[in-house]
Amino acid sequence: MKELSQSEIALVSGGINMLGILGGIALAAGISWNTGKAINTFNQTVSGGSLGASIYHVFN
User: Fold this and answer.
1) Is 13 within 8 Å of 44 (Cβ atoms)?
2) pLDDT band at residue 2, thresholds of 50, 70 and 90?
3) I need a surface site. Which of 36, 38, 46, 57 has the fewest CB within 10 A?
């Protein structure tokens, strides 16, 4: 299992707060549940949500 850094968490978050989607991302990426929870928590912050969404739009 890989632990992601805060910047990596921001990159993979995509501003998505849905636990089901997050769980799918966590399984697909092979990251630990703790990292998945960190991503979800990060997304629930204002800066995390907007940063994640901005990064998501840039790469998509």
Assistant:
1) no
2) low
3) 46
Task: Give φ, ψ of 15 to 5 degrees.
Answer: 70, 20
Separation between Cα atoms, residue 3 and residue 56, nearest integer Å? 20
3-state secondary structure of 52: helix
25 pLDDT higher than 60: yes
SS3 of 9-21: the string is HHHHHCCCCCHHH
Label residue 2 left, alpha or beta by phi (over 0 means left) and psi (-120 to 50 means alpha): beta
The reported pLDDT for the residue numbered 17 is: 46
